[in-house]
Write a structure and sequence with these properties.
The chain is of the alpha+beta class. It has helices at 3-21, 33-44, 53-63, 75-84, 108-119, 132-137, 154-169, 174-183; strands at 26-27, 48-50, 70-73, 102-106, 140-142, 147-152, 185-187, 215-217.
């Protein structure tokens, strides 16, 4: 278990026991010695508050014994635990079923366009590829180089190219051009077989869905 995982486990124990007690404090008898040592480290980070003399004096009658030690989460500790339980997943190790995924690093404007694309999934006739929305949601950002990191299947790569093509057609070509240069995937609706027919009507000539003949890969 990594250090941050140990810290979250201690914070979670403090929250659960404090809530069960009703007064928010976790007492000395409710934590293992190793956890109490971790609490001291978390106090130094501002995540945990240790009971002072007055707090212990108030707790002692409630417990029917002298309380010599107690701890509870600070607002910072509460928020750290809340975020930690919902934090983006770690990037997948590219092995087994993930072996066909490619690391893709997007600049902020590309990521912003992609978020709009996946957010419109229910309204689009050619929606994002399966799993792309989850990849966008859990993407991590390398703040050193200001790039968002995703691991995409070939189908998802083509879907990204389609989303950036839509962005290109409505204002800015830079994002699609950059994606084409870096990953060799470009959406082009000209000359394809067309997207799936809608409402029983034939597909319009000269249009193609991402993942079909309308997406080209530059080798």
């Amino acid at each position: 278990m990594r250090s941050w995982e140990r810290s979250l486990s201690v914070l979670e124990a403090l929250r659960e026991r404090g809530q069960a007690a009703g007064h928010g404090w976790t007492l000395d008898t409710e934590l293992l010695p190793a956890h109490r040592q971790q609490v001291n480290a978390l106090e130094n980070q501002g995540l945990v508050e240790l009971a002072g003399r007055e707090d212990r004096a108030e707790l002692s009658p409630l417990e029917g014994r002298p309380v010599r030690w107690a701890a509870r989460l600070t607002p910072y500790g509460h928020d750290t635990l809340t975020y930690g339980c919902s934090r983006p997943r770690a990037e997948p190790s590219l092995g087994g079923e993930e072996a066909d995924r490619q690391l893709v690093e997007l600049i902020p404007s590309q990521m912003a366009a992609l978020r709009v694309f996946v957010g419109l999934a229910d309204q689009l006739r050619v929606p994002p590829a399966d799993g792309l929305a989850e990849q966008v949601r859990t993407a991590s950002c390398d703040h050193g180089i200001k790039r968002w990191r995703l691991h995409l299947t070939p189908e998802q790569m083509e879907s990204v190219a389609y989303g950036l093509w839509l962005h290109r057609m409505t204002g800015s070509a830079a994002e699609a051009n950059r994606f084409g240069r870096e990953y060799g995937v470009v959406h082009s609706p000209a000359g394809g077989e067309g997207p799936p027919a809608a409402d029983g009507l034939p597909s319009p000539a000269g249009a193609a869905a991402p993942g079909g003949a309308g997406v080209s890969r530059r080798g």
